[in-house]
Amino acid sequence: MWNEHVICLSKWNQLKSMKELQPENCEIFEPDISFIVICKNEERCIERCIRSIQNEYAKDDEIIVIDTGSTDNSINIVSQIDECRLIKKTWENDFSMIRNFGINLATKTWIFFIDADEILIKGSIKNLKKSLMILDYNSISNVIISPLIVNSNLHVIREVKRIFKKNDGIFYYGCIHEEPRKNIEKSGADLIHLFLDNVALEHDGYKREIVKLKDKANRNTDLLKKMICVEPQNPRWKYFLCRDGRNSINEMEYEYLLNEVIQLSSQEPIFLRYRIRATSDLISYFIDSDRLNEADILLNKLEKLDNDLSDIVYFRHFIKYVKCKKEIMQIFQSLVECKKKYTDIEYGGIHSSYFHIDYLMGLLLFDLGEYQYAFQIYNHLEANEYIDLKEMFKNLYNQMTNFLNE
Q1: Across the strands, what pairs with 195?
Q2: How, if at all, do strands 163-165 and 110-115 pair?
């Protein structure tokens, strides 16, 4: 797996258990780490972030906070924290520039970038240093490590590359959604990518209120369009533009860009994750646009890319659900046509005024989400004492009230 530039957990565990990696009578030094935190107007969370690092870091490690123009209380907060180096740097709409500035500031062997809106989970530094000792002892270079990132909505990410050796010549590229590279033309394909699930961060920077407050969507969209101009053949920037700019680009452009991502990412194995995500997003778009046949065709292609993906199960059943809703609509329309025929009183049926037909129409409307029209029918039936639905809807009302007030 080493020559494939990705180290999976099973291979890594096997590597760690090999006796020759930890020989007797051999002194292995604990690696030192520069923890670098980028900050701008993060008074909400900057101290929390720094303290989570200080809870476990060693005396030979360092914490560097780079402030890019805070106007709130962030600088004052950081200034009062001992053993924390504060550096001010002008923000120039380029995240890689700031990260590379931090790399130059670092004085330790390894670098670990942690965002201000993240918390380092207890035990992560200890686990990380065990792995770094193995890499150092075996002189394995050009390794880039992804910690586990747990978002506030419990969505877990393994792809964000944050940890590497300072002297390996690795730098960040891209003014937004920046990524580590060594040879700029390789897009990271010349690096060994290691996932460490026992090194974890909690992240809450994408909560709705925070995203809205910082106007992250518009900022990201503008910077991603810039990166597309710089690297038009790299699917990374077009994928993130579709993701971050979903509400700011028109439908035609959104579909076109996703198809471009799929096409561009099919050319290099390193871009496979963008192909999978773009395919999944395009299926969602087709379903929302009532283009179910196209969604089915694309779903078969997604299954060939990764047949264990839960998205496949979700889409298979969601398409069936949409088709069921369409069938319910057809049933309702059929009842409407039937009801037009029943103008005379019917003797011997369930109800001579066809209230049973009305009741079924009300159920169908409710399933279709046409609640106003459904309740008009229900009120008519209640007024004529055909059926008592109020107790059922009182229970529904109470449950909805509890849900909305949580």
Answers
A1: 146
A2: antiparallel
